[in-house]
Amino acid sequence: MKPLVQLLAVEASPPSLQDNTGDLDRLKKALAPLLDGRQPTVPFARMTAVAEAFRRAGFKGTAVMNDLLGGPELVDFLAAPPRVLAGVALDLGTTHLEATLVDLVGGEILARANRPNSQIAFGADILSRIHFAVKDDGLLQLHRAVIGDINRLCEELAGELGLELADLRAIAVSGNTTMVHFFLRLNPYHLCREPYIPLVNAPDPCRAGDLSLALHPAAVVWVLPSVGSYFGGDLISGILASGLDQAEQTSMLIDVGTNAEVVLGSRDWLVACAGAAGPALEGGVARMGMRAGPGAIEHVFFDEQNGVFEYQTIGNEPPRGICGSGIIDLVAALYLSRMIDARGKFRREAAAGRLLETPAGPALVVVPAEEAAGGRAVIIGQVDLDALMRSKAAMYSILTTLVNQVGVGFADIHRIYVAGAFGRHIAPRQAITLGMLPDLPLTTFQPVGNSSLDGARRILLERTSRSRCRELVRKITYIELNVNQEFMLRFSGAKFIPHTDHTLFPSVPFFGE
Hints:
Elements: E1 5-11, H1 23-31, H2 47-56, E2 60-68, E3 71-78, E4 86-92, E5 96-103, E6 109-116, H3 126-133, H4 138-161, E7 168-175, H5 177-184, E8 206-207, E9 220-223, H6 233-242, E10 251-256, E11 260-265, E12 270-275, E13 296-303, E14 308-313, E15 321-322, H7 324-336, E16 355-358, E17 361-367, E18 378-381, H8 382-406, E19 415-419, H9 420-425, H10 428-434, E20 445-447, H11 451-461, H12 463-475, E21 476-479, H13 485-493
Parallel strand pairs: 4-7, 7-9, 10-19, 12-21, 13-15, 19-20
Antiparallel strand pairs: 1-2, 2-3, 4-5, 5-6, 8-9, 10-11, 11-12, 13-14, 16-17, 17-18
Helix pairs in contact: 3-4, 6-11, 7-10, 8-13, 11-12
């Protein structure tokens, strides 16, 4: 490991009338042999603090070094090494933030914490937040909201280990391009306007004090770079975590959250695209939809013999709603039991006795009120099905457009890594039934968990990952789907279960109407 922050024990001879070397110069000279002959730089804002600490310690102790790609940076000096050298890995999500406290010496995860993104108060989705940001002090409000969330996460993490916030010496941030703009208080105006150009793709490291983060003020803030407006550092993290850029055989990474982001390639080449397919899959569209959390239905099976839905909730708690994997399971079960047709429309005769009439149209009862949390039945409505059909069509269209652009077939793909809560909970068989994922052997699909968070952890611990992420930005070819006509044509054909072309899904039963 070559962590982002290192501790170096150093001792220098004290100054004298015969040696009038300045304190900082003396320290840098003493450190050079430990840094392959390179003298570190000292940020202007840290010059006084470092020099005074070095003198107070009697010219010997522990130097705190940031290991930046441009060279070593000296930011603090301690009379004795700290009990724990800790850094924070952060998944800066649109709806949720998740963080881990990492031991920068041993690499272990010491604590975990998560919380909702309070920016939701200013807009449920990225686009509405961008519009809010460009009015009056909207950007400042969004920035303060996310900084406040991060500070509360840091307080929770430090508290679990009995550490002070000043003991946190680094933070690696992995998020989509827009969230990074809000985090750094950068104007997002052009992100959603053709030709969709970020203010910056690869921000240089800064310090926690620059952003009012509640870590040590000299803690290094490393933000993973993006490739474009819709391809952020969270997907770069996914590539690092899955090893896609080092694979010998052609593989694919799928990350479904606010958007569906996809990378295809190997160690020789990488092509990527992104599109809006995520919200219905993560429970953001269905009325009973929720994120994967306690009480969320994550798997559903229809027992045709007994005519009942069997389900599994996260944490085995009474059902409060249904998350993305549960929605996929449910709709696949509705199709296989003939309660919906290939268009995703209820077949009233097959669903008789289960349908309710609501102001928004027909809805089917999945869990009756007496079994559900709070006495509120879990239902899925026709409007929810319509949203899922659009999302699943977008998902498959993104995948097919990407493979077609590079002239490979799905059968040529050795491994498909599926990231995030979507990958952790999804049953590939049911996703194939819907026509959301390609009809491939189930062993092709491999969940990789929260790869955004894992990538941030790697940035904290591995110099090679810090170098790789910068190289990836130059290596990836990005396809903009917003102006891709092939994608729109494929989208129309994919709005059926499993598809208008049934030969693409030989393992899925087809029911003629």
